[in-house]
Protein 1
Amino acid sequence: MSDKINKKSTQSHTRVLALYPTSRGFGYVVFEGATNPLDWGNMSIKNSDNKLALKKVKSFIFYYQPDVLVSENPIEKGSRRSQRINSLLLSIKRLEKVNIIVKTYSRYEIINVFEQFGAKTKYEISRAIIRFLPVFEYHKPPKRKPWMSEDSRMAIFDAVALAMTYFYLEE
């Protein structure tokens, strides 16, 4: 994707857990350095229960032992998330008090990073991610038509975009 990411972040072995909450649960990805995704997927949460979602997030933190937790900033420019998701994102941000670094990025910041690689929309960002990390090719969602719901796999790409934004801006 970028020489900046390749040169700087591959030397770092920062373990990053990126989470992207959705109405059905959350997408997640774990990286060990910018070019080494360890695990990814979607976690379903029944009844859109924020307490249960936060409990799952804490179990992910315990299991993966990340150095940094990355999520979306719900109060910055570009966020159009529901009140429930905003509440969950703020609860995730408060986890910073339990000995983990929490970084949040607005949709605007993510788009600014990926615009440098010719990607503005979520679909274009997913394709840029696949170019940089071909391991995600298998999970690529189809291009969304105006009448279609967003594919659940897009949450994985949203989580990857958050992690890559962290590596690009912070490392």
Protein 2
Amino acid sequence: MNYKQLTFAREYRGYSQTELSNFIQGLSQSNLSKFEKGIGVLSEDLQHRIMEFLDFPIEFFNRKISTTIENGNYRKRSAVTKTEILHFETNCKLIGYMIDEFSTTVDWPEFKLFPLNVEDGYTPQKIAQFNRSQLGLNRDEPVRNIIGLLESKGVIVYEIDVIEKFDGVSFVTTSGFPLIIINKNFPNDRKRYTIAHELGHLLMHNENNFPVSDNRDKEMEANIFAAEFLMPEAEIKHSLRNLKMSDLAALKQIWLTSMSSIIRRAKDLGCITPDRYKFFSIEMSRYGYSRREPHEVAIDNPACFKNACKLLQNELSYSKHDFSRFFALPNNIIEKFIFPTTNDVKLKVLKMSF
């Protein structure tokens, strides 16, 4: 058994080593700990009983999930528990694993964006400007259909249904596919900013492309990238001078970004003073906009992962059982990711008489 796969299955199910050993007769926490470190052995009988308890097919332990998640984007990080982070990240790793497994049958779009080395003096602004041009965006053009644009260039986007504390995450899968995962429960303007932020991480902070110093403020750089990517300085700056609250709704509809990010952009570009920025913050809170802004913007839906599922269903007639065997995953995981439940209301045609 691949001990790392056992660790993954245990963590996905939410058990600590002690908790799991308490459920399996003859398994001690110390022996399980040694096994998960790769320095101990467990009998074949124990291995089978562990797999049965965790409800993972035995074939899963011959697969490999080894993705490392470095760029997690958590709102109010101090309020997120280690257990919540672990649960979120195991789900994200599972999505990355399925994308890799799909690649044996599905031809994902080729990655055609351009990472540039921040260690070589390329600024986040310059990297954002260059990749905007690679996406065919004019300098004065907002980023419409942001998900479709990125997926056409080989960045797979997935919306995950998780609690409010998580904005998103980005990483490159074990087989080399760039992936951005965002929280589907957030407003569209926040989703768009999260996607741009995570794109910045993929283009600037992926050590598969070049080494990145640990001393860099990666979150700040990703924020600078996102702001320039969504609201280019050369085009928006003139609109931010003498900014008023009454301007925010129109600017939001033009640039498809939140009011709060427009206010922050005005401050960062020196278009408003710190005192004026404080005034805007107070007003946003007074109107309740710091919790939920008015004037929702549009965003397109991820298609790559969904289309891969449909391809196997329509072209190869895959059932839930077939997907379970294909991924070596239990049915409840297949139902969660491949056949998610929807709130669609089913209607039927009534027989009409004329």
Protein 3
Amino acid sequence: MDLLDTTLLIVAGGKGLRMGTAIPKQFLPLKGKPVVYYAIKAFLDALPGIKIILVLPEEHISYAQFIVQALNNETDLTIVAGGATRFHSVQNGLKIVAPDEIVFIHDGVRPFVNKELIDRCYQKAMQEGNAIPAVPVTDSVRQWDGSRYVSVDRSLLRSVQTPQTFRSSLIKEAYQQNYNELFTDEATVAEAWGMNIHLVEGLKENIKITSPEDLDFAEARMNKQ
């Protein structure tokens, strides 16, 4: 099987509201570098030469200079203005992705993605057209049935992560459809377009930083490393 070129589409549209900061959470400092730096660096280390597309809200595009400085000009970084929702932001980024690549779509606030997970996603997407990392749900879960909350068999559930990975021709086609408020991630868009979704083993440490406590945890974990 011939290897395909790769592109990383980083979605960095958060505004830091839950953080209570003026700086968007993906640009908050973590061990002296912006949070989003660590995800980009992980992909550059795993796949040297990977193309990087960083999708930002228009009002935050100036923050991209922090990333360029942190990377020490290691890569060409393309900045794309985001949209009103994650769907529209990804849609904007996909417009400049070539149709014959593997594209990784990753949250800018998941700094602990690693080479093993990236490789798993790449191989599965090459074979099946897509790869969605997921981990088992470990908490007890209840679901509203219209009148009360009932227990759910958690062994049947998975918590979905990123990088959600696709053959670019397939996901570009899926993003031609109109927006639906039920689109919570790229997999839901692909599934609505008719794709069968293929899960791969995720990474427990691949947390999404959304609160000050998450940032503290991330810093503590990096200090241990």
Protein 4
Amino acid sequence: MPTRKPRRYARYAALTLAVGGTGLLLASCAMSPPNPNPRADVPLKLANVDLPRYMGRWYIVANIPYFLEKDLVGSNTTYTLRDDGKVLEDFAARKGGFDGEAKTYQFVNTPDPSTGNAHWSVRLFWPLYGSQDTLYVDDAYEYTLIGYKNKRLGWIFARSPEMSDAKYRELLQKFDAQGYDTSRFRRVPQKPEDLGKSGYQSPGQPTP
């Protein structure tokens, strides 16, 4: 696989700003509505991750919208386990619509074995690092939930770009059990016919 210079991608750039305690993400979070979930202050419970099974393509089915992932559609990411135990990540999406500009980025992630490989340090570009936590992965490794400790950021990943409404609600319930405000999640369009549907993000819409 060719090596590309890591570039800033929305999700991880936001996490870096949150870790650093400065920047636009904090301003955005400060303006976010209060979390009404009665479990909002309960610490996140992390999953145990079998890294070889976790590798491969994941589609970003839904997230909590924020300004750095605005206007992306068809988002997906591919994980590859390196010999040194780190995980190479290749992200792809289109900006503004399915006929929009293709975006590709590459990152290096370092799982923490002491957390069951759930907590990852993410190298954006030296010396900036972010982080992410795996909150859930099903037995078949078809679905996974990614979160962040302040519960203002969250993502639903799936092996397929298609997800039934019932499965989506089931996965949202798992976020609810972890103390998230699930009303803030929106689905990411994975095909043109998703655009304009209720509950989906639409390019050009204001970020909540």
